[in-house]
Amino acid sequence: MASLLFRAAAISSPFSISAKAYTLGRLARRTLSPIRSMASSAADERFQKVQIQRDDTVFDAYVVGKENAPGIVVLQEWWGVDFEVKNHALKISQMGPGYRALIPDLYRGKVGLDVAEAQHLMEGLDWPGAIKDIHASVKWLKANGSPKVGVTGFCMGGALSIASGVLVPEIDAVVAFYGTPSSELADPSKSKAPVQAHFGELDSFVGFSDITAAKALQEKLNSSGVPFEVHIYPGLSHAFMNTSPEGVQRRKTMGSKDEDYAAVDLAWSCFESWMSKHLRSA
To answer: What is the pLDDT of residues 75-120, one digit of tens each?
Structure first.
């Protein structure tokens, strides 16, 4: 039912959203420049752009993969819908017999090209509104042929994934990478969906994705009554799943020089097993 793999942890309560943004913001190296819109690339041709309605708002989403397959909503890091989250969605769509992966554009076309821009975008995010986007994305997938739908995300998206498992009853499974929600947004002890979570042992974002946050999440999930796993990878820091050349270089500019492709493969294997178990079973 539950799994926690870690080396040392002291309990720490998660930061509020504003405090997390402050912690991440200390990474900024230069003055905020104008935010760019997302540029198209050859890889984008593999995605279908759709528009999803929620309340009185319409937002863009990017879909790839097998129709009528189980669906997975893939949530962005604080950068926005960029090359890396699309890399993840493409990989997910090709796992096993195939999934239909959908990326909702939570930033409405904006992408941060440096740390300061990404911080600015995350600080400005309407987090309850993002949960509504996720809810609408799940409903869109189920209305368009996906019998079951999971949610996954990275960094900011990881926190939103866990929160959506609490707040969106239609979600059938969650896999979160290095992120936990603030107590103001959601209490993981009230999760309605099975949760698997992944963290780097050396992650330095205290209270958000470090080992103390992983331990706190494990304790809350332990009282939730849902199946869960919490995995911590020795010697790895934040965003270790980003293995594209551009992603590796970006991590290095932020001070993360660790690379462990065996650990990344293990994490993807755990992801695939979890989603298959909860999205493909009757």
So the answer is: 999 999 999 999 999 999 999 999 999 999 999 999 999 999 999 9
Q: Which pLDDT tens digit goes with each residue over 10-62?
A: 222 222 332 333 233 333 333 233 333 333 444 578 999 999 999 989 999 99
- Can you tell me the distance from the alpha carbon of 249 to that of 251, in angstroms, rounded to the nearest whole number? 5
Encode 115-143: b = buried (16+ Cβ within 10 Å), e = exposed.
bbbbbbbbeebebeebbbbbbbbbbbbee
Say which CATH topology domain 4-29+37-279 has: Rossmann fold (3.40.50)
Phi, psi (deg, nearest 5) at residue 164: -70, -30
Whole-Å CA distances, 181 to 89, 147, 165, 209: 22, 27, 11, 10
Residue at 243: amino acid letter: T
Terminal C-alpha separation, the chain: 19
Q: Which residues pair with 50 in a beta bridge?
A: 61
Measured distance CA(148)–CA(35) in Å, rounded: 36
Distance (Å, whole) CA 82 – CA 271 = 21
Say whether 49 sits in a helix, a strand or coil. Answer: strand
The reported pLDDT for the residue numbered 70 is 98
CA gap 131, 45 in Å, rounded: 27
Measured in degrees and rounded to the nearest 5, phi and psi for residue 151 equal: -130, 135
Residue 138: DSSP 8-state: H
Strand-pairing partners, residue 110, are: 37
Q: Is 242 exposed, middle or buried (0-12, 13-18, 19+ CB in 10 A)?
A: buried
The residues, ordered by sequence, that sit 6+ positions from 223 with a Cβ below 8 Å of its Cβ are: 189
